[in-house]
Specification:
The complex is a heterodimer of chains A (115) and B (114).
Chain A: E1 4-5, E2 9-12, E3 18-24, E4 35-40, E5 47-54, E6 57-60, E7 68-73, E8 78-83, E9 92-99, E10 104-106, E11 110-114
Parallel strand pairs in A: 2-11
Antiparallel strand pairs in A: 1-3, 3-8, 4-5, 4-9, 5-6, 7-8, 9-10, 9-11
Chain B: E1 3-7, E2 10-12, E3 18-25, E4 34-39, E5 45-51, E6 58-60, E7 68-73, E8 78-83, E9 92-98, E10 103-104, E11 108-112
Parallel strand pairs in B: 2-11
Antiparallel strand pairs in B: 1-3, 3-8, 4-5, 4-9, 5-6, 7-8, 9-10, 9-11
């Protein structure tokens, strides 16, 4: 089982909200990890969006709109990237990342389609 | 402007070697752990290696252990990845990155093919 699992795809309408999940493997407690989120568009390197550990330990990437926000769902053992007021330019691949057992680990990525 | 610029990618035959470089500007590399991340065509991101600020600790993904070596020259404000015994599955865009306080380069393409 992968350390981080993301749904491969998600679709949402312009103006709506999209909740992208990053589920940690059983036995790895989301509460103890800082979760990073990236956005990647075709042909470009990943762009850092934010990192989230708790409401008192979080950071928004430089220039990243406030409609991108992070949270955790302890009951689901998952990190969440919430994108509100979806725009066509938000269509991209999204990756989560954590530091685990002396290694950086990426989720498999979610392809977000805005239609 | 703060930036990381990779170089050294190209076409190499299986079992060959290649050395990637990453030049930093606008930041002092010696203050940070630095990493290489790769992305195979049409695939997701994969962490490859990380090196401590002073080079005293190096970490690798299992698939490259014994074949790749990450190193740094803080006097030159540069990061390197020596890749030996290359395989087709190493074909990817390789990114130089500061992951803890995110900053990424534009990437350099490595193609392993005969």
């Amino acid at each position: 089982q992968a350390v981080l699992t993301q749904p491969s795809s998600l679709s949402a309408s312009p103006g709506a909200s999209a909740s992208l999940t990053c589920t940690l493997r059983s036995g790895i407690n989301v509460g103890t990890y800082r979760i990073y989120w990236y956005q990647q568009k075709p042909g470009s390197p990943p762009q850092y969006l934010l990192k989230y550990n708790s409401d008192s330990d979080k950071q928004q990437g430089s220039g990243v709109p406030s409609r991108f926000s992070g949270s955790k769902d302890a009951s689901a053992n998952a990190g969440i990237l919430l994108i509100s007021g979806l725009q066509s330019e938000d269509e991209a691949d999204y990756y989560c990342m954590i530091w685990h057992n002396s290694a950086w680990v990426f989720g498999g990525g979610t392809k977000l389609t805005v239609l | 402007e703060v930036q990381l610029v990779e170089s050294g990618g190209g076409l190499v035959q299986p079992a060959g070697s290649l050395r990637l470089s990453c030049a930093a500007s606008g930041l002092t590399l010696s203050r940070y752990w630095m990493s290489w991340v790769r992305q195979a065509p049409g695939k997701g991101l994969e962490w490859v290696a990380t090196v401590k600020e002073d080079g005293s600790e190096r970490l690798y993904v299992d698939s490259v252990k014994g074949r790749f070596t990450i190193s740094r020259d803080n006097a030159k404000n540069s990061l390197y990845l020596q890749m030996n015994s290359l395989r087709a599955e190493d074909t990817a865009v390789y990114y130089c990155a500061r992951l803890g306080d995110p900053l990424w380069g534009q990437g350099t393409l490595v193609t392993v093919s005969s």
